[in-house]
Write a structure and sequence with these properties.
single chain; 197 residues; mainly alpha
């Protein structure tokens, strides 16, 4: 009675079948494990740093590993390890909408360099063309961004009504201004298929 308990023997096939039948009925069919057994299974050995220098070094290494992992996730498009800025179904939907078509804003940087070069040529006629091109470019970007915002808001309301849409529009505008080749995470298959059509 007060002696040491023997370790339980593994269940036989009949006992396993009885447990399965009880589980179907909603009952457990086995004794509740003791608290110390559960805690022993959960316990892990934690190696505490010896001093502050060691702790700082471990923290730096851990952060570096996290940065490398998130950068690899950005390049591969792995949803599990993306940074918080790019994570979630809303951000994935925004990326798909932006990548599904070409936008005027993605040509902003190359065209801005051309306009800047034309401005500094010293030729007044070329400078006039550059300023006109600048106005046309800014107007097209504003119109294109407004169309993107309308399309994105209606799509988010219909596709993901229960999710928070906070920050989705600025995220979409920033992504649309990036050159397609340098976007991270890279444009997905959905965007490529939509462009192929």
């Amino acid at each position: 009675m007060f002696g040491r308990q023997r370790s339980p023997s593994p269940p036989t096939a009949a006992e396993a079948d009885a447990d399965a039948a009880l589980a179907k009925e909603g009952r457990k069919g086995r004794p509740t494990p003791k608290r110390r057994e559960v805690e022993r299974g959960r316990r892990r050995t934690i190696t505490a740093p010896r001093d502050r220098k060691e702790a700082a070094k471990q923290l730096r290494e851990r952060r570096r590993a996290e940065r490398v992992q998130s950068m690899q996730a950005l390049k591969s498009g792995d949803q599990r390890h993306l940074p918080a800025r790019d994570r979630g179904p809303v951000r994935k939907y925004v990326r798909d909408v932006v990548d599904a078509r070409r936008s005027v804003a993605e040509f902003f940087l190359p065209l801005a360099l051309v306009i800047l070069a034309l401005t500094f040529t010293g030729n007044s006629r070329l400078a006039f063309y550059a300023s006109t091109l600048w106005l046309v470019l800014v107007t097209l970007i504003i119109v294109d961004s407004l169309l993107l915002a309308v399309r994105l808001r209606s799509g988010l309301r219909s596709s993901l009504p229960d999710e928070s849409h906070r920050g989705a529009l600025p995220y979409a505008l920033m992504r649309s201004m990036q050159i397609r080749r340098f976007r991270l995470p890279p444009p997905g298959l959905r965007g490529r298929r939509a462009r192929a059509k």
